[in-house]
Specification:
By secondary structure, the protein is mostly helical. Helix content is 82%, strand content 3%. Strands 1-2 form a two-stranded antiparallel ribbon.
Amino acid sequence: MPDFIAESALVDGGYVLAVIMMLSAFMWVLILDRYWFVSRGVTELRDRLLQQWQQSRSGNRLVNQRLRAGLIAAYRQQLSSSVATIAVITAILPLLGLLGTVSGMIKTFEVMTVFGTGNVRGMADGISEALLTTMAGLLTALSGMYFASNLESRIDTETQCLAELMGQDVGVGKQGNYSREETSP
């Protein structure tokens, strides 16, 4: 094995760091996909739903409200299809970092059991694994939290925009709860 690979942070971090990196890469694919869709693909979806709304309207106000609420819910669901997965991955990453910390400390204690405190290099490998996995798990989770929150905010804005385009009598809640606002006769 080449020296630059043997001395890389990925090898020093152990198998847990490799799992963190793979899960982080998957999370970033999902984040980039959602940002692309919210910034580029949303116009076509919005236009299609608005066209469906215009074609399906009836003279019954209650039917119109339910149709509008259903279209808005479908829109929100399409926009936030991967956001829950991103949030789950974000929650798992620090736990994997903790697992790597425990694994690295176990290696350190094994070296101390066999060689005592005389093998500083052996102890440093275990401590290095513990620190690298902790840092990687926390950094990737923090970035995931920020972007998942930002995506939710953008999705809320887009959903509110569609609701306003369809009419003012359907309110959009943060979690996609739709209710009709009471209007006086």
